[in-house]
Amino acid sequence: MRIKTVNLSGEQILTKRNAEVLELYLQGKTSGQVADALYVTTDNVHWHVTKSYDILRQHSGMQIKNKQHAIVALATLGMIEFQSLYQEPST
After folding, report:
1. Distance in angstroms (rounded) separating the CA atoms of residues 57 and 55
2. pLDDT (average), residues 48-54
3. Can you list the alpha helix ranges (DSSP code H) found in 27-66?
4. Could you tell me which of 66, 82, 64, 57 has the C-alpha nearest to residue 28?
5. Smallest Cα–Cα separation from 52: which of 9, 10, 20, 83?
6. Strand pairing partners for 3?
7. Residues 73, 62: contact at Cβ < 8 Å?
8. Phi and psi dihedrals of 12, rounded to 5?
């Protein structure tokens, strides 16, 4: 799963850093794991996640109370790309 910073209209919604933090967080990483991966503090991770949830709430009109709500809002706004697990067989 990859989170884009822009919505379907091309409007910038999230900063690159907000998207990076949220992407790792929504993939099931703990705040500590996200912090380690991005060389930031856990407080910084919490700030980015909270800020991102607030932004998604404003743009989607949805209540964002957990990871599942955030994923639905991102999908509704066209800001999430799912990577295929299927690979073409090599010939």
Report:
1. 5
2. 97
3. 31-38, 42-60
4. 66
5. 20
6. 80
7. yes
8. -70, 125
Q: What Å distances lie between residue 48 and 8, 20, 71, 75, 90, CA to CA?
A: 22, 9, 15, 19, 41
CA end-to-end span of the chain, whole Å? 28
Amino acid at site 17: R
Environment class of residue 17 by beta-carbon count within 10 Å: exposed (0-12), middle (13-18) or buried (19+)? middle
Residue closest to 20 by CA, chosen among 38, 8, 32, 6 = 38
Give the three-class secondary structure for 66: coil
pLDDT confidence tier of residue 87, bands split at 50, 70 and 90: low
pLDDT tens for 4-40 read 999 999 999 999 999 999 999 999 999 999 999 999 9
How much of the chain exceeds pLDDT 90, in percent? 87
pTM of the model: 0.87
